[in-house]
Amino acid sequence: MSMFHGLSAFPITPCNASGEVDTDTLGHLITRLEDAKVNSIGLLGSTGSYAYLSRAERLRAIKAAVATLTNTPLIVGVGALRTDDVVAYAQDAQVAGADALLLAPVSYTPLTQDEAFAHFETVAKATDLPISIYNNPGTTHFNFSLPLLQRLADIPNIQAVKMPLPAGEIADDLAQLRAALPHDFAIGYSADWGCAAGLLAGADAWYTAIGGTLPKPAMALTKAAQSGDVDLTAKLQAALQPLWTEVQAYGSIRVAYTIARHLGLTDAVPPLPVQLPPAEVEARIIAALEHLDLSKRLRPA
Amino acid sequence: MSMFHGLSAFPITPCNASGEVDTDTLGHLITRLEDAKVNSIGLLGSTGSYAYLSRAERLRAIKAAVATLTNTPLIVGVGALRTDDVVAYAQDAQVAGADALLLAPVSYTPLTQDEAFAHFETVAKATDLPISIYNNPGTTHFNFSLPLLQRLADIPNIQAVKMPLPAGEIADDLAQLRAALPHDFAIGYSADWGCAAGLLAGADAWYTAIGGTLPKPAMALTKAAQSGDVDLTAKLQAALQPLWTEVQAYGSIRVAYTIARHLGLTDAVPPLPVQLPPAEVEARIIAALEHLDLSKRLRPA
Q: Is B138 near chain A, with CB under 8 Å?
């Protein structure tokens, strides 16, 4: 099992209004994830607001995570608009002690497939760390063609992909990717509500946003799906469904902050212009958390 | 006529590989625009790669433009992911002597309508300069609802909008906007191939990417359309069509750099990961320029 297998949990990066990272709170959030035995930490993912953080603050977050973790692999998001900035962030992460990188083709001018390839190739050559391709069209608005994924998989330290949920069946999507990519290339999914189905179908990883704040339910769902227990997976999915519904409507980052604040983990808010969801949505998220607790009591598995 | 009327020409911002602005070349590009009597300069637009530039380099570009211009209004793009960064860029622009601002809702986490409103409101309160709303879903992936535009138009120094081309008839789109917005709110369009139709229909402005490098053909087209000369407008459009075709396929920024390099104005390239188009596209762009020259000789108007 490489570090790109199992549950990769993405915490928020609590910051003040100026974008300075609250490293004490971040350390506490990461300790919760390690205590829940997640398989890796996904620091500075989309839920971790990496795109809104300066180079200095990204580095402070990485150093805090490295200082906190004892034996859980640390995957660090290094996406940025400029290739030279990504190279610098990747080298910072390596020097600071990250175990792996996650790279999204962040764009303003929409990128061509060849431009994205060159971007990834340049970054991969500038680091010794293994890289997971962060395929997230919802934020980057870039779509990887299958031939582009194949070209990238030929680069030695590009070893994994974090896929969005497909329009069709996830098992079909996974089978198509398996057939096209090297046998040891790790294929994982994100978009929390569909990922247990991915694990049941044999995906290598679930990159979870909600699991960065609720690691125990996410680990329980991961184990159920990895063990092929379809019934238990369905029950745990049902318990989480009210939360997934809010995530689908309001986005992982707004929901994760709402949960973390409700649990008393932080009083941080997302970076403006991103805001917490409106009060009525917050109430539904809290009700969904209570539904989750109730479900767990009813179904102690 | 406010500064948000007529032809607003957006130059590239020539930089070295590290993103440092070549202010001498930028000054020369801007002088060409002023000599062609464009109605305003759109500095640091999408074609001016603003999203890829640091605060310090944006400010250097603004200072170079202010130092160069004699009597053409300077509109400065100030978009960024973080609201506090945009406030800082807006204040930099005002202090440096810009005449107006152009603000796009740059996003990574997709923004809600309310979040975009708060973002614009915060920036508008932080500056005395008039602001044009930069509505460019092709790069920001944000769509302004008509009610949001109405709310924004109620803010005193938000005085204009730069619209994308509509899916339907531009005259219908303009009529709908005119009916919904204050009578003195300036409505302009971008996406070069459709803007002469906008001016013919009575739009206030054409925000031009190609006109930032080819100001004379763009001014000729602007004058033809503003004077209601449908036949001449059609002829000038036809002369430019081969160029529009490449812009539609490869994007304004790649085409603008190709033209500027071909004309000997600069040897700069776009900021990586954005690249110049492939050689066969460059050849077609050069052929399109020759077609334009030939058309102008044939139709000296």
A: yes
